[in-house]
Each structure stands twice: as structure tokens, then as C-alpha cells.
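Example 3.2
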Amino acid sequence: MKAQALLNLGNVLSRLGEYELAAQSLAQGLTIAQQRQEKDLVVEILLSLGNNAQFEEKTTAALAFYQRAIATDADADLQLRAKLDRLDVFISSSQIVAANREAQEISQLLKELPPGQTIIQAKVSLARNLLELERPPMTISHLLLEAVREVQALKISRLEADALGILGSLYEQNQHAAAEPITEKALLIAQSVDARELTYQWQWQLGRILVAQGKTEQAIVANLVPSEVLLNQNFTRDGLQQKIATLPYPVVHLATHGQFSSRAEDTYLLTWNDCVNVKNLDYLLQNRDFNQQTPIELLILSAFQTAAGDNNAALGLAGVAIRSGARSTVATLWSIQDDSTAELITQFYQALTSPGTSKAEALRQAQLSLLRSPKYSHPYYWSAFVLVGNWL
């Protein structure tokens, strides 16, 4: 029990970045486990020591711990974990020959072990590594499809989302049409089990795939989690009003054409079948259920422009911000290319998900990202975006 407790403590300290204290705790636990000849626990501690060394970027030490774990006559699943951990180190340290050799040994070992959750997880991990090693796509897809079939039989949703997402990554390289539905399915499953780290990965991946296919509007909304999307003929005045009235989402993103003007009657946004004047915007956007306490924290208008020849047109933006009831509003002052808009909004959402990042800072980071891009460095692409209202 004491060795297990020291292992648990070491893992916690390692996650907190206290690597030296973690190593001390794990070393003490290892001594006790070895004295009691608890081979499986010895391997567990050696793996944790290897991981701790890897976090410190001590490649040689990490490989030595993994080698000791592999050399210990312990459970086959633990041996497999040790080999996968060592493969990660080989790849991260660019030891490609050793990595390919390790991957081949792992592939053979997987064929010899009985199916189960640990083996499926190992297949998924191996597939991710093979993708980094640029191994033949057929080999990787076969491994992932096999893992998906097995995990569906066991009904382990999180692992299925992981496997499907990696398969989508494989197809993203040159088969975008096939990658899109696979990544969408991975994202939906990840959301259903609240696997947030996978949700973020596959959401970002789906956005890239959509942009590659020229589906920029879908790419923008794909980066909202959770989200409800109204596209094309579904984006009507009634449809928008119904969603806003019944759903508690704090962010409303209107990637539709519109115009700001100092004249209220010339400030509007377009739906599929209607033109909504700013005078009606307060009713449209503030019409939420009486018992719904979630305000619109952020309103984004990413395809607007100011009226031609109107030097005070930006006042129209202030009017929209006030009438919407939103605490903050991000909008464009002139019409911008869809691709650059999608890139900036994606970067904005990504920055906004970082703890402690204000809306103003998120927008600044997104604009700087485009400024540093050779393709979108001109101010035309990024300086049109402004933030009105609460900057926090």
C-alpha cells in the first residue's frame, strides 16, 4: 500500500510540475515495490519515472526507465504501454530508425494479445504515432478501422471518438470529402461524453477541413462549442428568433452580410428571406424566455461593412451593440475576404478559450496572428475588426 501511495503522490507532483519531488517519491515507491517483488507495480512506477523524465526533457533518462520496464517480467499490457511510451520518446527526439523499429515490434505484439480495451487503446495510440512517422495510409486506416469496430462492440464512446478523429486526420491529408463526415461523427461523440480535450481537437480539425473545401461559413461556426447552426435557407428571421428565445448560448455569431450606417434606417442585416433593420434588432436578439437568465455575452458580426460615403457610419455599430443587449460586440467595418475572416475568427475563438484571456486580448492575438501571416499581413485583412462594449 505504501508503494502505491508513493506512486500516486509522484504522479500528482509530476502533473503539478514538481519533477524533482515527483522523482524522489517515485524512487522511494520503487524501492519498496522491488523489495516486495511486486512486478506489475514496479513496472507502473518505472513508467511514471520515465514519463516524469520525459516531462523534464531528459530523453536518455526516460528511455532508460522504459527499457527497465520492458525488461521486467510483468503483465503484457504493461509491457505494451512501456513500448508505446518509448515510441513517443523516439519520435519526439527524432530517432526515426529506432521509432520505426519500435512501431514494428508493437504491431507484432498487438497481433499476439487478446482483444480488450487496453489493446484497442494501444492500436489508436500506435496509429497516431504511425501518422507522425508518415507510414503508408492504408496501414494506418486498417489499424484504425479495426479499432473502431472493436470499440463499437464494447460501447466505449470516448475511445471511439479518439479513433474516428485520428482517422479523420489521416483523410485530411488528401481526402477532405471523406474526412469531413468522419470528423463530424468524432466531434459529436466527444461532445456527447463531455470529452473536452477531444472536442477541441476535432472541432479545430473540422474547421480546417471545411476551409480546405471552401466552406468558410461552416468553418467559422464549427469552432463554437456547443453550438446550434443555421445555414442558408434555415437562417431566417423566425428561425433565428426561435433559437435565441429557447437556447441559453452566451455567444451569437452572425456570419451574414449587413451594413452599418449613421442612419438607423440604413443599418441592417440580411437573413435568407428578409432584411432585418437595426430598429427590430432589440426585439429579435433580446426575445429570450422569461426564466432564461443567460444574457448574450458576445455578439459577432463578421461579414458587415460601413455604408459608402458615410463618415459617421461606425456610429451604426454602436447602435447595433446597444440594441442587441449584448455585453460585447465584435464586428467588421468593411467587407473582407471569407478565407481571412474565417482564419481570424478561428484564432479569436481559440484565444478566447484560454483561461484569463479577455475578449480584447483574444481579438488582439487573432489580429497579430494574421499580421504575422505572409498571406494576410496587410491591414485590409485584420484591421477592420473592432470590439465595442465590455472588453473583459
